[in-house]
Design brief:
This protein has about 525 residues and is α/β, with parallel strands linked by helices. It folds into three domains: about 5-15 and about 315-525, Rossmann fold (3-Layer(aba) Sandwich); about 60-190, 60s Ribosomal Protein L30, Chain: A; about 210-305, no CATH class. Helix content is about 30%, strand content about 25%. It has helices at about 10-15, 25-55, 60-75, 140-150, 175-180, 195-210, 250-255, 320-330, 345-360, 395-410, 420-430, 475-480, 520-525; strands spanning about 25, 75-80, 95-100, 120-130, 165-170, 185-190, 230-235, 240-245, 265-270, 280-285, 290-295, 300, 335-340, 365-370, 390, 435-440, 460-465, 485, 490-495, 505, 510-515, 520. It has a seven-stranded mixed beta sheet, sandwiched between helices. A hairpin with a 6-residue loop joins β9 and β10 (about 280-285). It is globular. The two termini are about 40 Å apart. About 35% of the residues are buried.
């Protein structure tokens, strides 16, 4: 089994940027937390009455989850003049639960029904720091607001990966100002994966890499054809639907962009029939071997203002972790394995943007995309045989693009767990010369097939998407066992395989204790 390269062996800019995981001993960790003990005692007494009261209505587990949320908020507090609401991201919804100034009761509590049972990524509690009386207890009010949220959405408190933030607005200087500011919770959550979500995510990718944009004014999710660039071609089918593709696509990939015009047929061949690439010859074939040849005349659609999405791929994605990590690191002889399940399109776009660089360097042997079972129900997903894995070995970005889209189209939902280990085993079988694996993984989705980790006999470098709160300990375990590494938007965590029992690694300000070959986030555990 090969080991991950040490930071000292890297040269140039990489050597300056890459750092080892900051390890501390268990004894150092204990001294560190003891030093915080006296500072925390006054908070404990302030919370004591609240939790004595809560024991009469909350179960023991609910008490733990509620207490953890209170402490996470305390640990992630910031002050701003005035809160700005986040912009929408593909595959993520925003719920706003408002309370009046100096009040803990929700104005529209029933709005919370939309989030019940969903995956909650982030919860922000927003308040104003202004108070009329110096005796006013803002912390007590915030705790009551949090308790009211718990009564509405207890499931939002149970996921240790949920990011919690407490935001104080300093701009209000009077009661009148305070009444104009927002108070309450802003909750970022994921809708269930569905065919409609997949369709929207595919449109998002098309808008970036086909240089077109989704038609927001159309309920059918069409395309605004008056904004396309002159290097695009538009094919209009008999039913009025349209497909858009670049005229520079080579013929070996062209068929993948087209759909059959006749039911029960498939496109098997497509080729340009003129030098200007304004016409296509397409051959369709059905299951009985019947072939139909069609000649399609294409249209040009463009405006004077070119679309510049290629220069602004990440404008709508504040978490540019894939781009940042791939720029920060250099790996040789890799296969890239990526999660393309629901809500991953912002990261898939970053993968596609990196592909030309990876192909140009000749270091990427292949690409593997997984969707956790092609839409199978949970009870159909056997560990190691879940499926929904698509691979391509190519030197063309468009072929990678189409393989990714095929994998996305085939998956239409399911549960939160996924099959990354199975996908990596698949990659090693198909690309045996690979020496290292790059895994683009969803931090919120635990691997259902972690038990198969020993079959991955190459270092795995895990790029964690959405790791804005706590790092998923399952991926820390997988990186350690494979002699690999963990990467977030800010940190490259190396040498996990060299850690000893009881040592602690610090990632994004949180401490992870190695115990019995698994990692425990002490910021979560110690609050219980």
């Amino acid at each position: 089994m090969q080991r991950a390269p040490r930071a000292e062996s890297r040269t140039g800019e990489n050597k300056k940027r890459i750092r080892s995981a900051p390890h501390v001993s268990f004894e150092q960790f204990q001294r560190y937390y003891c030093s915080l003990g006296m500072k925390s005692m006054r908070y404990v007494f302030q919370l004591l009455f609240l939790f004595i009261f809560s024991t009469s209505v909350l179960s023991a587990q609910q008490e733990k989850e509620f207490l953890a949320a209170v402490n996470f908020l305390k640990a992630n507090q910031e002050l701003v003049p005035k809160y700005s609401f986040p912009t929408n991201e593909s595959g993520r919804n925003i719920l706003i639960l408002e309370v009046p100034f100096s009040n803990s009761n929700f104005i529209s509590a029933r709005l919370a029904d939309a989030v019940k049972g969903k995956v909650v990524e982030k919860i922000e509690l927003i308040y104003t720091t202004f108070k009329v009386s110096s005796d006013f207890d803002q912390q007590k009010l915030n705790q009551q607001r949090l308790k009211n949220l718990f009564s509405l959405l207890p499931n939002a408190f149970s996921n240790p990966m949920t990011e919690w933030k407490l935001i104080g607005q300093t701009g209000a200087q009077s009661v009148e100002d305070g009444n104009k500011y927002f108070h309450g919770f802003v909750i970022t959550w994921r809708p269930d994966a569905s065919p409609s979500l997949v369709k929207n995510e595919l449109l998002t990718l098309d808008s970036i890499f086909l240089k077109t944009i989704p038609n927001e004014g159309s309920s059918s999710g069409g395309l605004k054809l008056d904004s396309l660039r002159s290097d695009l071609r538009v094919l209009t089918y008999a039913d009025g639907s349209k497909v858009v593709f670049n005229r520079n696509i080579s013929e070996d990939s062209l068929w993948q962009y087209l759909k059959p015009d006749k039911k029960d047929f498939s496109v098997v061949t497509a080729m340009w029939i003129d030098t200007g690439r304004t016409s296509l010859m397409v051959i369709e074939k059905n299951f009985n071997g019947v072939k139909i040849k069609r000649i399609w005349k294409l249209e040009d659609h463009f405006s004077d203002t070119p679309i510049t999405s290629e220069n602004n791929v990440y404008l709508h994605n504040p978490d540019s972790v894939v781009t940042t990590v791939m720029r920060r690191n250099s790996w040789d002889h890799i296969v890239l394995v990526a999660d393309v399940t629901g809500s991953m399109s912002p990261y898939s776009a970053q993968v596609l943007a990196w592909v030309p660089i990876g192909l140009a360097g000749g270091k990427c042997a292949g690409f593997v995309f997984y969707n956790d079972g092609d839409g199978k129900s949970t009870n159909q997903k056997d560990v190691g045989k879940t499926g929904g894995i698509y691979a391509v070995q190519t030197q063309r970005q468009d072929s990678v693009f189409m393989t990714m889209k095929k994998a996305m189209n085939a998956g239409d939902g399911g549960d939160l767990e996924e099959n990354p280990v199975e996908a990596m085993i698949y990659s090693l079988n198909h690309f045996p010369i690979t020496t290292e694996i790059i895994l683009i993984a969803d931090n919120f989705s635990a691997p259902r097939d972690l038990a198969l980790y020993a079959k991955v006999n190459r270092p795995v470098h895990i790029v964690l998407c959405g790791a804005r709160g706590t790092v998923n300990p399952d991926y820390l375990f997988l990186a350690r066992q494979s002699h690999g590494t963990i990467h977030t938007v800010h940190d490259d965590i190396l040498h996990l395989d060299e850690m000893k029992e009881g040592e602690v690694v610090v990632i994004e300000g949180k401490h992870y204790l190695l115990h019995d070959e698994h990692f425990i986030c002490n910021e979560t555990f110690s609050r219980y």
